[in-house]
Amino acid sequence: MAAELVTRQQSGMTNFGIVAVLLLSVVLGCFLHAELDLSQAGSTDASSIYNFYVGVALMMFVGFGYLMTFLKAYGLGAVGFTMYITCLGVLFAIVVESYMGKGKLAIDFLSLLNGNFAVAAVLISFGGLIGKISPLQITVLVVVELFCYCFNKVFLLQQYAPSPLISDCGGTIIIHVFGAYFGLAAASVLGPPKDDKLNASVYNSDIFSLVGTVFLWLFWPSFVAGALPAGPGQTTALINTVLALLASTVVSFALTPMLQGGKLATVPVQNATLAGGVSIGATANLVGPFGALVIGGLAGLLSTVGFCKSPFFGDVDTCGISNLHGMPGIFGGIVSVLVPFMYEGTGVSAANQMNGLILTLCVSVSCGWATGKYLLPKLDDDSCEPFSDSSFWICSDDGQHKGQDESTATGTSSGALTGQPITETGVGLSASESHGQLAGRIDDVEGTLSAQMSRVEARMLGMEQSVSQQMQRLEAKLQGVTASEYGPAIVEQLNRIEARVRVAEAGHAKPAGMETATAGPDPLLRKETLEEVLSQLKRLEERLAPQDGTQVTDSEVQAQLSRIETKLSEVHSRLPNTGRMPSSASVGSVNPGGGSTIVPATLPTAMSPSRSTRTLQPVAQMTSPYAAYRTSG
Questions:
Q1: What is the mean pLDDT of the chain?
Q2: pLDDT at 399
Q3: Buried b (16+ CB within 10 A) or exposed e, 52-82
């Protein structure tokens, strides 16, 4: 089966290469008849236009590329496929738009700009489909969408006519609305992938995504005003775009904590801060500074609410293009309909602006639906893993397994906290399995389990969770496990944990196997804190009470409890005014047979201090059990 899947993947990538070469050959054939249009070279500030082109190109390659690197296992695909889409798309758009608009292939600086504008629409659509389509399907998307985009721009919106149907210097309607709803229609037809465990971010991927946001923010004025002739109109558009971006950024930062429980969230900051640039595009050269701030602020509000609440397309929209490009694009189009009534001398027809917006929505939705239905068949879930670079890229060992490992850790912790059965590798041991099967599985996954528990623990500690919550996680994970002959051993192990915790509450206590503790309670560990921990241990003990006719995953339970004992030993060894606790080597599990043999339980390799970058530091105040000992670094 594995060999068959590899063969299918290799066949698909070979087909992709053949199609890409054929397309390039077609473009080369078209360029045989191309000519440079230098008619305006004498009256054009070439350096200025080239600077605009560079700014727009940086938005495509770096801005869009890195914005989509938020996917924890799809960084190569985000940046690499963005580069491929941009290069193929610019070539194809120059040919198609020139023939449709000029009747011949005449290339000037504006052709390069228009080619990048066209690619922006495809990259927006790609944001809704990223991680769910193959390179061959990406190629089909580029060709089909660019043809539909150029048709809408040239023939329906009449942008090459002496009097264009609509005014849209920044592409609010032509680019953002079209690209967003083309992609959303295609994504809706394809539906969500069956396996979306990698459709998530991690700390580093969010940072890279924020780099893309910064590049888009800085060069967005070039995107809006680059195609305008030099003069007052272009200067107005540049200034208004910056003002709109400023307003949307401030509003996004201000609203996000109100909608996210008092903290900033990365997704709105990465995306909604750019909404002002999307909405101002249609009117950037028409409104004043006050209007630009209002438009940008309202666009930021609309986008932030969209990202925090996900009212539309949340199950199929990977990057949230509905919230960044779709809704702010429609809002900007509606603003362009109202501008003629608010500003005199704009030369804009409100009826034409509305017609252009409706036409674009109809064309984008219908063409996107047809593309998703007939030209982008859904990926076979058994041959290509969604949102994974390893499906199409040769990845280094750490990169190939990074997403899987992080997904496993996330799945383990989330399942435990919600009380759902854990089914990831290394856990999910069925109570109905025989001991022979259970032993075999434990041998296979022991190392994986240790690594998973280490990662989960590090993540939870990094989020400033307490030891109490670690207990809750274990309790939720083991809530369906009951003990038969192993029940007494587990209960006795829990009693030892309870005794360890009590030492901190009553410094004079002297449980068996422990050295004498210094008299006097620890001021950092208040009585109510310890009582809370003890109550959780008692609930765990009740749930693990022996019942006849059941089997217990004894090795896993014993290992989990030993880890908690070791962790408590580490914590107590750092407490002032408490006695030294036995080392981890002396912490063990009782022989299930009822004897007094002690089995040493050592700290797993993945969690040992020599392999960890964590250091425990006391803090001045404590708000939850053991909150005084949080991770740093």
A1: 75
A2: 57
A3: bbebbbbbbbbbbbbbbbbbbbbbbbbbbbb
Quote the distance between the C-alpha of residue 4 and its chain's center.
31
Phi, psi of 289 (to 5 degrees): -60, -40
Sign of the alpha-carbon dihedral angle for 85, 375, 318, 175:
positive
Contact 194, 247 (CB under 8 A): no
Query: What mean pLDDT is predicted for residues 43-51?
Result: 73
If you write DSSP's letter for every residue of 169-234 in order, what string do you get? TT-IIIIIIHHHHHHHHHHHHH---S--TT-S--HHHHHHHHHHHHHHHHHHHHHHHTTSPTTHHH
**Helical (H) or strand (E) element with 589:** strand 588-590
Identity at 186, one-letter amino acid code:
A
Give the number of C-alpha atoms closer than 13 A to the C-alpha of residue 412, restricted to the C-beta side. Answer: 27
Report whether pLDDT(632) > 70: no
**Domains of the chain: which residue ranges?**
49-376, 399-632
pLDDT at 628: 34
Angle at 539 between CA 535 and CA 540, to 5 degrees: 115
pLDDT at position 199 over 50: yes
DSSP code of residue 629: E
pLDDT band per the 50, 70, 90 thresholds, residue 355: very high
Tell me the CB-side half-sphere exposure of residue 311, using CA atoms within 13 A.
9
pLDDT tier at 375, thresholds 50, 70, 90:
confident
- Quick one: pLDDT at residue 104? 93
In the chain, what are the helix, strand and coil shares in percent, each to the nearest 5? 65, 5, 30
What is 49-376's CATH number, 1.10.3430.10, 1.10.260.40, 3.40.50.11220, 1.20.210.10?
1.10.3430.10
CA 527 – CA 511 distance, rounded (Å): 18
pTM: 0.66
Strands 106-107 and 35-36, by their bridges, are: parallel
Position 599 pLDDT exceeds 60: no
Query: How far from the centroid of its chain's Cα atoms is residue 127's Cα?
Result: 12
Q: Which pLDDT score is estimated for 473?
A: 55
DSSP letters spanning 410-446: HHHHHHHHHTPPP-STT----TTS-HHHHHHHHHHHH
Tokens of 312: 């539309």
Instruction: Report whether 186 contacts 125 (CB < 8 A).
Output: yes
Does residue 596 carry a pLDDT above 80?
no
Terminal C-alpha separation, the chain: 44
